[in-house]
Amino acid sequence: MKGENILYETLYQSILTQLYSGAIRCGQSLPSQRELCRQYHAGITTVRRVIRMLEADGYIHAAPGKRAVVCFDETDEGYVSALLQRRESILDLYGGLELIMPPLYAKGAQRADIGALYAVIRDLRQETEEFRIHRQVSRFLTTLLLPCQNPVIMDLRADMEHYARLPYLPSSRLANPFSTSVALAEATLASILQPIEQRDPAALTRRLEKLYRDGATRAAVYLDGLNQRYPAERPAVAYQWFCGKGHVPLYTVVARSLYKRMEAGAFDGSAYLPSVPALMNTYEISKSTACNAVALLSDIGAVRVLDKKGIERRVGGALAPLRLDIPVICEHLVLYLDVMQILSVCTNRLSHAAAATLDARQAEALAAMWRDSVERRTTHIVQMLLEFLRRHAPYHCLRTIVRQFDDILIWGHYLNRLAPAPEEQKALTQQITQAFSSLCDALQQNDLHRFSACFQAVFQAAYHHSRNRLRRHPTLAAQLPASFS
Description:
Elements: H1 5-21, H2 33-40, H3 44-56, E1 60-61, E2 69-70, H4 76-85, H5 87-109, H6 114-124, H7 130-145, H8 151-163, H9 182-197, H10 201-229, H11 250-263, H12 276-283, H13 287-299, E3 303-306, E4 310-313, H14 326-355, H15 360-371, H16 378-392, H17 396-408, H18 415-418, H19 422-444, H20 448-470
Antiparallel strand pairs: 1-2, 3-4
């Protein structure tokens, strides 16, 4: 695992991607250092280092007390090279988000303010410049997502906008793939508004899926045209979209890794887990990060820290006092619920697409392995299903998203400490176990529709159960995502 230095690389490469995609242009200001810290969950030291790197490389001009200003103005050949290096990632992104974003839009649309949507269309009619037309379309789509009350969904949308944006180069003499007009944009938005007013989420989902497919087709034609006009060998860039996009501190990733290793029996032959210095060396992290990872595992009851002895796996007994601050725990419990909301909406289509990659023999073997699983705890079932998505999702960007979501879900273990509800937990376990059993039967019978419905039912049950428990917590109720019950 790369250590904390990856934060520098991720933030640096993310800003470069925005520069080369035209999301931030010459003369515009970067977000403030405080905003970058919040957006990437990075410390001020990391952000300042990246600002210095960008200035040293000639991309920005930074002055004390002011926002950095972009002075990067690339040649057409430079833009083309950067675009074509990201070609496969851009097309992968369109394909992956076609599976998860339309259902989220459709859910948000159930509670959307129709008057606000009409207002966007009225404002659109007043625009003349093309970039302002695009901005109004973006505003319309964002309005659909607002009822979800979920900042992670907004991050997914915003990140796609900057990563998949294709700056048009007139010198290429190619057709502008995303050229639009007020009439065309208005017709597009009207076609989306119609099924919203008719309360037809399935039709809305189909129309939004078509938008993603059409966007991917136009992008592919344009990028292939650029490649013919500017032929050259270009290695693919290492930076991947949404990789390291940050809400989650590094110690969460380390804690999740250790928890998985414990569950897999990696430390069964040892009296103690690796020490803090050993964790620092293995994961290439600071002492603070290693200590926080151990604190998280102690808080959720996975380990016990013994003074002057070491870290042992906890088996029964009273829980130790909380080591992490309550506000930090509450912040990440809300984030956990944000992720669970997304999974509760999207796993039907994600699991169907993932299962479609299996042949009959693979599906039967997987179903048998799941059915023979000794443990049937809720967390164990959720973990197995997420691992299935991470391995078999048909697009790289989806596997990246699922991997990061999986790291976040470790915070859900705090539910048992901050909002204990043993009777409700018993009922949830029974509900999820039944859905999981039906899921295994459907997979063995190659009934993908029933498989994906049961798959989603697991995450829907876990989401609504978790949300019901957290909304009783007075400091969290107002921050939770929508229920969609």
